[in-house]
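Example record for the data management plan.
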Amino acid sequence: MKNIIILCCLTLLLSCSFGNDDKSDETTTTNPSILKPVDYDYISQGFGNQYSQGRYHTGVDFSTGNRNDAVKAFIDGKIEFINKNTYTTEYDKYWNSLIVVKSLYKNKTIYLYFGHLNNYQYSEGSTIKKNDTIGYIRNAYDINGNLHRNNNHLHLSVKSDLVKSNWGYISQSDVWNYGWQNSISLFSW
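Corresponding structural encoding:
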């Protein structure tokens, strides 16, 4: 009898629909705490840290050392923006490579800014699902064009609206007053 009850419970669980069947343009909420966006070694710079000349960090840098790891979507969403500008130096390519994903989290629209990527796997307007590879970590370069592979990292920012410039370092008041959020505390990683 006990085995029949367990079997019935399992059958009921497997037959239930998990998720939102709404086919609207909004994306569905998923639990991002299960999956991190990249297999990182350590956090090389945190949210809100002062950088230089009074500018503050809008996101979290997940260091991959010298690896060019795949960056995964950790929440369902839609690609809202990819920086398609053509840059001539490796430094400019590195600092300006950006993909923005619009998602719904806890019934609020958020924009996820994935910086320092290349080999994008999707285009603007594409729908992505949790665990999809969206790109790969780009090699890190300094302003003189020197390769610094030991500094390869994913920059991840979270904001309540879409901006297409000034997404990495901004003034202190802008970090705290204009909707930038700490991804580590928001998603409980």
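Summary line stored alongside the record: The first strand starts at residue 42 and ends at 45.
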